[in-house]
Write a structure and sequence with these properties.
- The chain has about 190 residues and is mainly alpha-helical.
- The chain has helices at about 5-15, 30-40, 75-125, 130-140, 145-155, 160-170; strands at about 20, 45-50, 55-60.
- A three-stranded antiparallel sheet has the order 1-2-3.
- β2 (about 45-50) and β3 (about 55-60) form a beta hairpin.
- α3 packs across α4 and α3 (about 75-125) packs parallel to α5 (about 145-155).
């Protein structure tokens, strides 16, 4: 017997309203029944509402025996539909805000990343795609944000990072002007 039982779990499992018209005579959920009767509840119903992948249940409780499952057709049904739709829209809105924030951050850091790519292209003699890929992989390997790493490359003009970039760049495919053997070139000082 599951510790999680009752009309809510049954409604979520079945996708239909579930409940008991009289808990005194209903023995489907013994633990739930005991706790409900101790609280003075004689009837209960759980009404599931689904909108855009979100499931919400509205629970109804009665102090007297009687059917509550038909409540889905009335005001409770309207309230459940409205609440579920509102929660789903709020979830979408919050996800959109996160995405807007991420895009804003990317747009703000783009010029610095482009400048860093230019420095890496000069130091390693690679093309723009290889430079960006190298910076991306280097930021992942060092657990630093790409914009932070690019800022360091730009601020130092690549000085002090040449050896790291060259060592890390050896695993990248050769680009135009970069020797296929991966041997070091003269670096700017």
């Amino acid at each position: 017997m599951s510790a999680w039982e009752g009309p809510i779990i049954s409604a979520l499992d079945s996708g239909r309203p579930e409940g008991a018209d009289d808990l005194l005579h209903d023995d489907r959920w013994p633990r739930y029944r005991a706790r409900a009767l101790d609280a003075g509840i004689r009837s209960s119903a759980a009404l599931p509402f689904v909108y855009d992948g979100l499931t919400v249940t509205v629970s109804l409780y009665g102090l007297r025996p009687g059917p509550l499952r038909k409540a889905a057709q009335g005001t409770t049904g309207l309230l459940g539909d409205l609440a579920t739709e509102s929660m789903a829209r709020d979830r979408l809105y919050r996800a959109a805000l996160v995405q807007v924030d991420q895009l804003d951050t990317a747009l703000r850091s783009r010029p610095v990343v482009d400048q860093a790519c230019g420095i890496v292209m000069y130091v390693l003699g690679c093309d723009p795609d290889q430079a960006f890929d190298l910076l991306r992989r280097f930021s992942q390997q060092t657990n630093r944000k790409l914009a932070e790493l690019a800022g360091t490359v730009v601020r130092t003009r690549g000085r002090g990072l040449e050896r790291n970039l060259i060592e890390f760049g050896r695993s990248a495919a050769p680009g135009p002007g970069r020797p296929a053997s991966g041997q070091d070139r003269d670096l700017p000082s």
